[in-house]
Amino acid sequence: MGNRMKWISLLLISLVLLLAACSGGGNSNTSPNTSEKNLNTEVATDDGSGIKPVTFSFYGNYDWLTTSPWGDNEATKWIQENRKVTVEPIQSGGAAGEKLNTMIVGGDLPDVIFTDRGSSVERLVQAGQLVALDDYYDKYPNFKKYVKESTLNLLRSDDGKIYQIPNWYTSGQFGNGGWMVNKDIYNELGRPTLETFDDLYQYLRLVQEKYPDVVPLEVGEKGAGLEIMYGGFKENSTSKFISLMGYPEGDKLSSILDDPAYEEMVLYINKLYRERLMTQDALQQTQDAVKEKVNTNRVAVMVESNITTYGAEGHRALTANNPDSGYEIIWPIHKAGLDKTQVFVSGFETLGWNVSVITKKAKDPEAIFAYFDWITGPEGQKVLFFGPKGLYWDEEDADGAPIPNEKYKTTPANERTETMRKFEDFNWAGNTTFIDTAKMSLEALLSANQKSWETVAQSTVTWKTALDITEFVNTDPLPDTEIGIIAQNVGDIYTLAYAQMVQAKSDEEVLSALETAKKNTQKAGLDKLLEFRTEKWQENVKKINVTK
Q1: How far apart are CA 23 and CA 7, in angstroms?
Q2: Residue 328 forms beta bridges with which residues?
Q3: DSSP letters along 422-470, please?
Q4: φ/ψ of residue 84, rounded to 5
Q5: Coil, strand, or helix at residue 29?
Q6: Residues 66-105 pLDDT 10s
Q7: What is the C-alpha separation between 367 and 84, in angstroms, rounded?
Q8: Residue ranges of the alpha helices (H) in 215-322?
Q9: What is the DSSP letter of 345?
Q10: Residue 95: helix, strand or coil by DSSP?
């Protein structure tokens, strides 16, 4: 029902945007006439940073996102005072789609929208509501330096222009998914080998016997960790193929439901479920419920797409009472016989996570872009990740990474992490490669008990077990097209069948549900959907290869 309502909402957005475009809503696609009074900027000055004073409105298009007041923490206060930039947040109120609809209908779009790539952006492009950023990318230095050309090409809309500013893009490898174990329980049980799915099964049974009040295997919010097991049953694969409903066979995508590795995965998951070796409300549980179990020492093993966040928080909670407790990251569990160096948990895209777009309501879009370009550069990244100079660092190393000062070393890890997370919430043009390199340099200067659990987990396991899946971006059809409707129907069929397979009472029921899902998805047009996605995938491959 939720997906169907989302689809209806997207149709409404399309209609509203069409009406806005027809009525001439918005400004021209060029920078404002300099003779007009710029209501969004103060008097322009050159402070050497490449940006000028500007005030702009910002809307985070997510139900869960609440943007804190600007200037309420050390980082944004420093930016306001030293770079003369002020951001005016507009809150979604827990109903992002409806709020955006209201702003569109009222002709009152924000200056910047922070959102997912895909249909929400392309509709605004088609309605002529966004500013093309190509000239700004050429003019300002930081995105040009840090974003690969192939990444920028993948951000281009059908008209050949770039309207999007990427967030947490990368030129290297990164990932946060994986497996961890409870150190207390693992040590008490003699630290048995935990490499294969057979090893895991035996270990979970032992936990169940010895620790009846502990969840043997925790799988995250709404079972987010379950499908990432797929990568453990097949080399060079990730759960991205499940979301595509297809896995690569040569230069085309074949139905994921026909993949023997997928069948093995659902049979294994169901076995754990039937024997109560994993969370019994896996497909319904909330993030808060998961965190409560992790943070109160009631989880023996966990697999999750964002294990570094759960692990870091849980580790801090447990070590607060006992420094020897906590969680330990482990190499991904996999099928016996596979090359463990070719087993991947996460998939990463060089485009990163989401994007910001500048609407034609902005009085000075260039000034806004210049600020985002500053964010993604060395100074912006340091301020919005580690905090301004003088807080946790006073000097830099030869590569520009901050050197931790005494306050960084002596501030309790929980307090320091919480403070820095407040800064990161405003890092809307995250430069993954710069931050990861800086974090590694900083961590190298700390003693073992001062190092971040998250950073250690990333550098030793989760980055190494993430597969580059950039070539599969932008393969989702627009919802209100024929293929988009097929994708919605196929997704609905799969969601129901997957729940039936996870919770089935026998292997036979699992296989029956799988066969039914194969037939129903074929009737719904899965072949057409996979043809569409194959075409988009191969287009991406060409774009990537031409700029290598």
Answers
A1: 25
A2: 181
A3: HHHTT-TT-BHHHHHHHHHHHHHTS-GGGS-HHHHHIIIIITTTEEE-G
A4: 55, 40
A5: coil
A6: 999 999 999 999 999 999 999 999 999 999 999 998 998 8
A7: 11
A8: 240-244, 260-274, 287-295, 307-319
A9: S
A10: coil
Quick: pLDDT tens for 297-341: 999 999 999 999 999 999 989 998 898 999 999 999 999 999 999
Tell me the DSSP string of 471-529: GGTT-PPPTTSHHHHHHHHHHHHHHHHHHHHHT-SSHHHHHHHHHHHHHHHHHHTHHHH
Identity at 99, one-letter amino acid code? K
Half-sphere exposure at residue 28, Cβ-oriented, CA atoms within 13 angstroms:
4
Contact 121, 359 (CB under 8 A): no
CA distance 233 to 230: 5
For residue 353, what are the CA distances in angstroms to 171, 347, 365, 473?
A: 13, 12, 22, 11
Residues 400 and 377 sit within 8 Å (Cβ to Cβ): no
Q: Please, is 111 exposed, middle or buried when counting C-beta atoms within 10 Å of its C-beta (0-12, 13-18, 19+)?
A: buried
- CB of 432 closer than 8 Å to CB of 170: yes
Q: 90: which 2 tokens?
A: 């507009």
Burial 20-41 (b: 16+ CB within 10 A, else e): beeeebbbeeebbeeeeebebb
Query: Which residue carries 């974003």 as its tokens?
Result: 147
Angle of the 378-385 helix axis to the 432-444 helix axis, nearest 10: 60
Q: Residue 38 — φ and ψ, nearest 5°?
A: -85, 100
Note whether 212 and 276 are within 8 A (CB).
no
* Whether 27 contacts 42, CB under 8 Å: no
Rounded-to-integer distance, Cα 488 and Cα 479, Å: 7
Lowest mean pLDDT among 29-33, 371-375, 440-444: 29-33
Residue 547 has a pLDDT of 56
Helices (H), 83-236: 96-105, 119-126, 134-139, 141-146, 149-154, 183-188, 197-210
Distances (CA, A) of 424 to 45, 97, 207, 486: 27, 24, 37, 38
- Looking at this protein, which amino acid is placed at residue 68? S
Question: At residue 2, does pLDDT exceed 70?
Answer: no
Task: State the Cα–Cα distance between residues 491 and 517, nearest whole angstrom.
Answer: 11
pLDDT at residue 73, rounded to an integer: 96
Token pair 């099964």: residue? 201
Residue 12 has a pLDDT of: 41
Quick one: 339 exposed, middle or buried, by C-beta within 10 A (0-12, 13-18, 19+)? Answer: exposed
Mean pLDDT across the stretch 427-435?
94
Rounded Cα distance, 546 and 548, in Å: 6
Write b or e for each residue in 365-402: b if 16 or more Cβ atoms lie within 10 A of its Cβ, otherwise e: bbbbbbbbbbbbbbbbbbbbbbbbbebbbeeeeeeebb
Count CB neighbours of 134 within 10 A: 13
Cα(360)–Cα(109) distance, rounded to whole angstroms?
8
Q: Which run of H or of E encompasses 402?
A: strand 402-404
- CB contact at 8 A, 251 and 535: no
